[in-house]
Amino acid sequence: MYGQDAPSQDALLLTPSSKDSNILQCHGTPVYQYDVIIVGGGVAGAALAYALGKDGRRVLMIERDLSEPDRFMGELLQPGGIEYLKQLHLESTLDGIDGRVIYGALTLVGEGQRLQRYPNRPDSGRPYCAIGFHHGRFVNNLRRAATELSTVTARQGVVSALIEEPGRGRVLGVSYIPSDSVPRDTVGNTGNLPGPLPAFAPLTVLANGGLSKFQRSYLPRLPTCNSCTYAITLRDCELPVPNHSCLVMSKLAPVVIYPISSHETRALVIVPHHVRKMYDNDIRRYLMEKVVPDIPETIRSKFIEGVEASSLRFMPNLYLPPSRCAHNGLLFLGDAFSTRHPVTGGGMTVALGDVVLLKQLLSPQVVPSLDDTRVVAARLRVFHWKRKLWSSAITILAQVYIQIMENQGDPDFSILGFALAEYFKLGGTASSTPVGLIGGVYTNPLLLLYHMNAVVIYGFYRFLISSDSPRTFIGNICRALSALWAGYNLVLPLVWAQLF
Ligand SMILES: Cc1cc2nc3c(=O)[nH]c(=O)nc-3n(C[C@H](O)[C@H](O)[C@H](O)COP(=O)(O)OP(=O)(O)OC[C@H]3O[C@@H](n4cnc5c(N)ncnc54)[C@H](O)[C@@H]3O)c2cc1C
């Protein structure tokens, strides 16, 4: 219920749920002060606040810390993400952040190297490009764009619980502990720090990141994690190919290096949990002993300087396939909803693509009032299925890529790595289409299917003809079949988890 005719909020009683400390039950009918409450003002939350606010929806965005984030995740936006920003009319958020254009990637494996570029645009023939930047500067611009709209209210605070209808029904809003200046009428004149405040809206969007505590209460799946990413900053470093990221296949796991400003280059070192254990958490020693020798000589000294100077911050690499939240009035978005390995830098692109789709599906022409539970639920069902079409390719490729790279010591995975490398060597679309899929430029899942099968056929053919005698040929057939089995065991569960 909206507006003046509704009973006063004072008549409401909020009681903790006996089963779940993340949930409050609301006795009485609340007044909706907003159309949408968005929890989290990261890439997903801020972009959605802007998109819905622009459509005239009254949005409350609650963010734990509204100052410029100092994080090393989300520093490379793929070309697909840039296109989504354009569709949201948010491309200006990439201005003034000292971003660096990236046209492709140089992959270094032992002595070999391979340069892969994003495909060309069909209209102008000019290449698609990604952009590297400081995550915090970009997010700041997104938040500014959202809060400049009169329809969007941003509050700094932590959402501590969701408010539900009794009987675990519809989500009616959130309870949050504000940490910014609180209007007098909401806390009274006591002068005390405010306790939790309720806020009500017919739709609550949880965009509070991959470690959202609400996943446990509302989603059938939870994130898993078997590696971390460590961040190193390289100062004034010339990459082997300018305006191209550099992927180094180190002995135990890959390192991704790309520019994030005119003077800074980011190196992200992926460290599987078993390696961390092997080195007794002494990551600096691991970096110096195992990673540094694989870093190209031209940038090795900068890398070492970076390792010595950095405080070695790290983040967990989460994997969470998307799943539908069965509760009316609630939607998960961004990393809270689904995550993939960061090695291919696809997270922000998926989040922005989801925002574009949500804006279309919830447009006021189609859904005049978000209070219409039945219509909103139907639109969110469409969202859940439609997004799979394009987001699955980005996620599947990220997971397949990292598994192959992390397991090069395994005979099956080393054959899969060989097949992939041989296929990419063909060049042309064999190289640019997979990069286009990773970059979110191509969104047709059939392209993924086609290229995966082509890798198997061509890569395994190359593997078999590399046999130097009939005897090794027979042995190689057995090895190829075993690798094929490992490949399908890797891919099919990923496809299943993304699609169902
Ligand atoms: C190491 C690493 C590197 C990555 N590199 C890339 C990359 O190069 N390119 C790319 O596209 N993606 C990358 N990603 C993924 C990308 O960072 C995420 O997909 C993206 O940031 C998701 O945005 P989000 O808004 O969903 O979540 P987040 O960016 O995590 O934002 C969540 C927000 O919610 C707030 N919040 C949390 N809890 C609460 C609460 N209870 N109340 C109020 N506010 C709350 C947080 O303060 C935060 O601001 C990387 C990820 C990792 C781990």
TrEMBL record:
The organism named in the record is Dispira parvispora
Question: Which catalysed reactions does the entry list for this protein?
Answer: squalene + reduced [NADPH--hemoprotein reductase] + O2 = (S)-2,3-epoxysqualene + oxidized [NADPH--hemoprotein reductase] + H2O + H(+)
A single GO molecular function term of this UniProt record: FAD binding
Biological process terms from the Gene Ontology for this record are: ergosterol biosynthetic process
What's its EC? 1.14.14.17
Is Endoplasmic reticulum one of the keywords?
A: yes
Q: Which UniProt keywords apply?
A: Endoplasmic reticulum, FAD, Flavoprotein, Membrane, Oxidoreductase, Transmembrane, Transmembrane helix
- Where is this chain's protein located in or outside the cell? Endoplasmic reticulum membrane; Microsome membrane
What protein does this entry describe?
A: Squalene monooxygenase
Function noted in UniProt: Catalyzes the stereospecific oxidation of squalene to (S)-2,3-epoxysqualene, and is considered to be a rate-limiting enzyme in steroid biosynthesis.
Membrane topology value = Multi-pass membrane protein
Q: Which domain of life is it from?
A: Eukaryota
Mind telling me which GO cellular component terms the entry cites? endoplasmic reticulum membrane
Q: Does the keyword Lipid metabolism apply?
A: no
Q: Which family does it belong to?
A: Belongs to the squalene monooxygenase family.
Q: Which residues form the FAD dependent oxidoreductase domain?
A: 35-65
Q: Which EC main class describes this enzyme?
A: oxidoreductase
